[in-house]
Amino acid sequence: MNPFEQLLTRHLRSILAPVVITAAACSGGGKDDGSEEEMCAEVTTKSSEEGELSRENGYLKLPLGEACPSDPPIEQLEAADCCPVMAPEASCGLTDEQTTTVQPYYGGYTDDTAVESFVVCTYDAVFRAGNACCGRPLTVEGQPLTASARRGPSDWCEPAAPVAAPSEARARAIAYWREVAAMEHASVASFGRVALELLRHGAPADLVARCHEAALDEVRHAQLANGLVAAMTGAPEGPGALPLPPMLPLATDLADIAAAVVREGCIGETLASVEAAARLRHARGAAADVLATIVDDEARHAALAWATLRWLLAVGGDEVRERAAAAFAEGIDTHPALARVPEGGAALGLLDDLARQQALADGWRTVVLPAWQALSRPADPPHEVAEA
Question: Do the strands 143-144 and 139-140 form a parallel or antiparallel pair, or are they unpaired?
């Protein structure tokens, strides 16, 4: 690693390491036929271990003074998931958790925080499983790709000791870790594509080699996550075929690569490591062991993303710098903090929305922004990252 990467990695790990030391001693599918009423009844009675549908709080944000509708536009409901790709399927009724909320928004260029006030309406809702922010997501034309889980023996499933937990916590944890497993599995292909794109543009051997090393990490993560699911369900499972298109599109220029590296790596993987550390804080047993591995590996993957961006800025000129700046300028917009973790869920790696929201905001403010500011001002010494 060059000095900038060393400082960045040291700074990120200085945040994560105390959590690791203390605590360590996902599927897609097509839309089902049927009415909202049928789906609400089905998910109420059907074990969520089946994996495709998830009963979650759905949030609708409205201007101050507006009343919460009893029949909201389904497509506008959001789940408090790591990535906002959980697709709403049905609204099962308005809850009593309507609140006036003040939410921070962290802009891309400065540490200034704009404050927005609004009404949050909360609904009992059914969502289609979406994306956990684990590993580097695999997207095609802006849409995430994952393989569906399949029951049965699989070498994508690392055996783990049986896990006992209250039924609600266990069901939520199964859905979460199945989603993580699917995303980690897809991340293997994502790193393969990044390696091809770098090769296409003459990148240094070190960056290409580290992409392949990261892909092997993601194989291990998928095996561990599937093992946790099996430990909670009592039945092994692994991914089916990854639904790749006949020709996987590659970025055609350095600016496109830079925009993806910023979104998926510099922001996504950095914050994924920070979030995993927040989950690890209260995790126990096998879940803590898996999260400790993910925290450390994703920190290295984040450092790789920043090293890749550094190279892209050096060889790509103003166009790359402008595209990267635009991606950082989008900032992060976190979901309302209303959902609660069921009893026993924290030990299995579940995290309430408030803690997750705070972890992502802190990671953005203390790691992502200072690192980008250091890279975007080449004349400034890189020690700014360590001092931020």
Answer: antiparallel
